[in-house]
Structure formats: C-alpha cells, structure tokens
Design brief:
Elements (H helix, E strand, L loop, with lengths): L3 E7 L5 H9 L7 E7 L5 H7 L3 E6 L5 H15 L5 E5 L15 E7 L12 H4 L3 E5 L6 H14 L4 E5 L7 H13 L30
Parallel strand pairs: 1-4, 1-5, 2-3, 2-4, 5-6, 6-7
Length: 214
C-alpha cells in the first residue's frame, strides 16, 4: 500500500491520543506508527507502546510545536520509512496552530465542554481540517451539541464532522471510514503546508525578559 500520513491536531486535552489509538486499533492502515509532539512533557508514549505501536516522541520546550514539526519532518519521515501509515499527533498549544500538510489527512479534535464559542477562536487548526472530531459530547446536552456542531460547520463547512467518545470507542467506525474517504481523494504533489505557520522569531522568542519596546 502507498505511504499515508495523518496529522492529528486539536485543542489541549481534547482527546487527540484517543483518536490516534482508535485509528491504530482499526483495520486498513497496514503497519502504523505514531510521531508524538508535545510541549513540555508527555505520558502518552507509554500508552502507545503498550499497544505495540512504534513511537517517536519530540518535545518542543520553549519552541513552537508547529515549527518543530516542520523542521523535524524529514527526520520523522526517515524514521517512518518502513511504515505504511504515519500518524503525527501535534501539541495543542494555541488557536493559531497550522500543522496540516497538503497531501496528508488533516484531523482536528475539539472538546465540546470547552464552550460553544471555542470554534470561533480557532484558526487554521480548524479551518484547514478535512475531518473535525467532536469529543466529550456525552458531557453536554443535546442542544449544546447542536450549537457546538453548528459553530464548527460555520468555520469549516467542507469538513466531515465525527462525534467520538474516547472512553467507549463510540464513533470510531465513522472516524475510520472518514479517514479512508479522505485518503481515496488525496491529491499527489510536493509536501507543503496548507497555511503558513505562526511567526516565530522576535526578541522575546530569543530570550528577552523586559516588558515593552526598547
């Protein structure tokens, strides 16, 4: 089978790792590995290893996780050369994250308990996604779910919406079916970002501590 790359992004603690596990435990992806990016620390590596998955962990530290991903992508691809499917789970850091690639499946995971205004606060993380996974929907009422889904559709009307419960696995089949649908229509071409990354370099990024313009 052809090499497939799936990028899973989303807001912090929204259930991205549970989405990755749902993909890993389903059929049709061949030999699957996970590249996990996080900001400061991560306990998810052990969870993936316990499922007999090959895992590569990268920590951004003070660095923007999106920039770390793009600069490390050749290294990640080389590490994944024997895989059929590479799932990249990015760190949920800010609303301006833009981790998606043109010839990869783009999945955004959003926590429904974050509030109905949350989708309006997200940029390319949501608007560039092929699939939007709505998690923790069992913790809000039906009217709240409908309002939340409407806000997501308003920001990204072309995306496929999938309701997913990371505890019970409900919605996993819809998720896998949607991913295979995106793969079937994925264009060939040079690897490129869907949207330019957030700007990185300024005096504060380089260690400035004083407040104000000097």
């Amino acid at each position: 089978m052809l090499f497939v790359r799936i990028v899973v992004g989303g807001t912090p603690s929204s259930g991205k790792s549970k989405v990755v596990l749902a993909l890993a435990q389903s059929d049709g992806f061949g030999r699957l590995g996970v590249a996990k990016l996080d900001c400061v620390s991560s306990v998810d590596e052990k969870m993936f290893l316990d499922q007999d998955l090959v895992v590569k962990l990268l920590l951004a530290g003070r660095y923007c996780p999106d920039h770390l991903l793009m600069e490390s992508l050749p290294e990640i691809d080389e590490w994944a050369c024997d895989l059929d499917t590479l799932v990249i789970e990015t760190a949920g850091l800010c609303g301006r994250c833009a981790p998606y690639l043109c010839n990869s499946v783009a999945i955004c995971v959003i926590d429904c308990t974050a509030g109905s205004r949350t989708p309006y606060k997200l940029g390319p993380l949501l608007t560039d996604a092929d699939i939007v996974v709505l998690s923790k929907g069992d913790l809000v009422s039906q009217p709240e779910r409908e309002i939340f889904a409407g806000a997501v559709r308003g920001k990204n009307p072309g995306a496929t919406l999938v309701w997913f419960n990371g505890l019970t696995g409900e919605g996993a089949w819809d998720l896998v079916k949607s991913v295979h649908g995106v793969i079937a229509g994925m264009p060939d071409g040079e690897q490129a970002l869907k949207t330019p990354l957030p700007q990185l370099y300024c005096s504060y990024c380089l260690g400035k501590a004083e407040v104000g313009i000097y």
